[in-house]
Write a structure and sequence with these properties.
Helices cover 14% and strands 24% of the residues. By secondary structure, the protein is α+β, with helices and mostly antiparallel strands. It has six domains: 149 residues, no CATH class; 54 residues, Wheat Germ Agglutinin (Isolectin 2), domain 1 (2-Layer Sandwich); 78 residues, no CATH class; 63 residues, no CATH class; 64 residues, Wheat Germ Agglutinin (Isolectin 2), domain 1 (2-Layer Sandwich), CATH 3.30.60; 63 residues, no CATH class. The strands form 14 sheets. The protein has a five-stranded antiparallel beta sheet with strand order 1-3-4-5-6. A five-stranded mixed beta sheet has the order 23-34-35-36-37. The chain has a four-stranded antiparallel beta sheet with strand order 7-8-11-12. A hairpin with a 6-residue loop joins strand 40 and strand 41. 37% of the residues are buried.
């Protein structure tokens, strides 16, 4: 029973009807302010761990059962001690309409000995004194022990379950529906059982706080249970690094996809990483102000690994580069090879064959092949890429050996296509291949990323890391252990981990493609411009209070729990994925329009294209699903026939095997 008093909380529990104890509102308020109980003279305060870390059991002074975790305890140091379960603290002084004795009310009573008239159990003074509390009818001398009284109460499930729960005091063997641990037949303590379904939960799981702040993450973590069909990727616990079971309870930051087991929520981080000091002006601050600055920054990253300076002069106007069969000419005017423009969807006219980034007017001079059929162009700095690089993340191997990346300007396998391990994207430009790891490639963009950056949403520097598996991207929410990637097996290679910029102290991370989102975009859809907005800021400052938001580009609904573009004046939104696609930010890593020779069609060269909805491979006639799923096709413009990348690669691999067998045969006979 909770009563009013100095520093206490007044609450009048129900005493009739269904015996429903409104546990959540009572306890949440009592946790903050403390309580005064009619059995004890001193105020009681709430403790997450009433044992204060001790391994010795501590028993409730009302029901006599062990307190598993949290509860109320006397705050006076000189007191001998008084402790209560949260539920026992809310028991009433009087019960009316008790099912086995409805004619008279039952009063909370302390006795030297009694016999329960419901279960027929005898209690005497020789037993533990806490067992001598009961409910008694003064008129009939009818006694009910605490255990039987418990079974008449229904408890609000504190948002963990849809049905009301019944507290149980008697020993029972069951599997906790929240933590998955078994409660043995001989174990004592309160548990809560649902009479409607199979749900049964430990007292220590029931009393878990709804929200916690943990030193392993920068945002609050909310208690989560029963996702009801919501898809959960393969999350790992941020502390023990073991998988999270989505059918049990856990703590989660849905925004960052960071999770903790409930059993790990009381543990502290072990040896958090040390933040290395670095000159502030050496670290780039994100997000960048505009789309133009984003393009220039990506180009500058590549210039940095070439140790390139814009004032450098090139003596040779004709270049023989190993990536191309014809001489390349130094050009100073981009308009000679194209009417410089970009479409409204970010599809640029001139793409560099090395980094697969667009060329702009200020990128001149550049190299190009004079043959109109080649469509081969190189940034001046991409022609000077270093032959060897150290990996951007030295720890990607989990060994003490630092691996070296070797420049590949012509990839012989898979028809020149590869999957970048840094961004999980397929590419056909230059790549850096690890000299130790099999099928490990980085495209030029990912290989050129800086080691660390700053982002306005986080106080610590963000470190580039390969294979970060704890949590997800702060912006898009995708994780390195997403089922979509675990189950996908692309033909060139299957890449599961990827690059993220993150803080391993706070388990905060963001993908490079999300890092490159500019602060503001300007489009004719909106006269004010769209600004990149943090979800917390958006929800706080949105005066319109709309129940649903739609992207102005794709017209699909947006859930404002991620970084999104907004115009508050016009109450318009734009999804970050659409902005990336529409404005060509971090564009596709495949050069469309590049020419290829293939044995599938020897008559004419094939042009690399993006297959549309009506695309049909001439070779497999649509039987290979990968021909469409890889989203890359080839077309003979003269014969009007098309092939999918899967069939092209299979044929290319077959040719290589036949050639290898032929060469071995010739050597053997010679």
């Amino acid at each position: 029973m909770l009563s009013d008093g100095e520093g206490g909380v007044y609450h009048q529990p129900p005493s009739s009807g269904s015996f429903l104890v409104p546990h959540l509102p009572l306890i949440e308020e009592a946790r903050e302010k403390g309580i005064k109980h009619f059995l004890h003279e001193h105020p009681l305060i709430f403790k997450e761990d009433v044992r204060n870390g001790s391994k010795h059991p501590l028993y409730c002074d009302v029901c006599g059962m062990e307190i598993g975790r949290s509860g109320f305890s006397c705050c006076i140091e000189k007191c001998k001690g008084f402790n209560l379960h949260e539920f026992c603290a809310s028991l009433p002084l009087e019960m009316k309409d008790y099912p086995q004795h409805p004619q008279h009310p039952l009063i909370f009573f302390t006795s030297r000995g009694f016999r329960c008239h419901v279960c027929k159990a005898d209690y005497s003074f020789s037993l533990r004194t806490s067992f001598l509390h009961c409910f008694r009818c003064k008129v009939c001398d009818f006694h009910v022990d605490i255990r039987c009284a418990f079974m008449s109460f229904l408890v609000c499930p504190r948002t963990l379950h849809n049905h009301e729960l019944t507290p149980r005091l008697y020993p029972a063997s069951f599997l906790c529906s929240f933590c998955g641990e078994k409660h043995g037949e001989g174990e004592t303590g309160i548990s809560y059982q649902c009479k409607t379904c199979w749900f049964w939960i430990h007292e220590q799981c029931y009393s878990l706080p709804q929200s916690i702040e943990h030193d392993s993450h920068v945002h609050p973590l909310k208690l989560c249970y029963d996702l009801q069909g919501e898809k959960l990727p393969n999350y790992l616990c941020g502390l023990c690094k073991e998988e999270i079971n989505s059918y049990l309870g856990f703590y989660v930051c849905k925004r960052c996809k960071y999770t903790l087991h409930t059993k790990c929520s009381t543990k502290k981080c072990r040896d958090p990483p040390i933040i290395e000091e670095e000159e502030e002006d050496q670290i780039i601050q994100f997000p960048l102000p505009s789309i133009e600055v984003v393009h220039n920054t990506l180009a500058q990253f590549i210039k940095n690994i070439c140790q390139w300076k814009d004032e450098d002069e090139e003596d040779c106007n004709i270049l023989s580069h190993p990536s191309h069969d014809h001489p390349l000419t130094l050009e100073f005017d981009l308009s000679k090879i194209t009417s410089f423009s970009s479409t409204s969807r970010g599809e640029y006219k001139v793409i560099c064959n090395g980094c697969i980034l667009p060329l702009f007017i200020n990128d001149a001079p550049f190299y190009s092949c004079n043959r109109s059929t080649c469509n081969f162009v190189l940034h001046k700095w991409c022609a000077k890429l270093p032959r060897e690089l150290k990996h951007p993340d030295p720890a990607h191997t989990n060994t003490d050996t630092e691996h070296t990346l070797i420049l590949q300007v012509k990839i012989k396998r898979f028809f020149g296509f590869f999957t970048c391990n840094g961004c999980r994207e397929m590419g056909n430009g230059f790549a850096y291949k690890c000299n130790e790891c099999e099928n490990y490639y980085l495209d030029v963009r990912c290989a050129a990323f800086p080691r660390r950056v700053n982002h306005e949403t986080h106080k610590h520097p963000l470190i580039l890391k390969y294979g970060r598996t704890i949590g997800g991207c702060f912006s898009c929410g995708e994780t390195n252990l997403d089922d979509e990637w675990l189950n996908r097996s692309t033909t060139p290679s299957s890449s599961l981990p990827s690059f993220t910029f993150g803080c391993d102290i706070c388990h905060f991370s963001i993908h490079p493609r999300c890092l490159m989102l500019p602060q503001e975009i300007v489009h004719w859809y909106d006269e004010h411009g769209f600004k990149l907005t943090d979800p917390d800021v958006f929800i706080r400052d949105d005066n319109q209070g709309a129940s649903e938001y739609h992207c102005e580009f794709c017209e699909e609904s947006i859930v404002p729990d991620k970084l999104t573009y907004h115009c508050f004046e016009c109450d318009q939104c734009a999804d970050a994925k659409c902005v990336r696609k529409w404005f060509g930010l971090f564009p596709k890593h495949v050069k469309i329009g590049r020419l290829y020779d293939s044995e599938l069609h020897k008559e004419h060269p094939l042009t690399c294209i993006l297959p549309g909805e009506k695309f049909n491979c001439e070779h497999c006639n649509g039987r290979s699903i990968l021909c469409k799923d890889l989203e890359i096709g080839f077309e003979c413009t003269e014969c009007q026939i098309r092939f999918g990348l899967k069939c092209i690669i299979d044929q290319h691999q077959l040719e290589r095997k036949l050639k290898l067998k032929h060469d071995l045969f010739l050597r053997w006979n010679n």
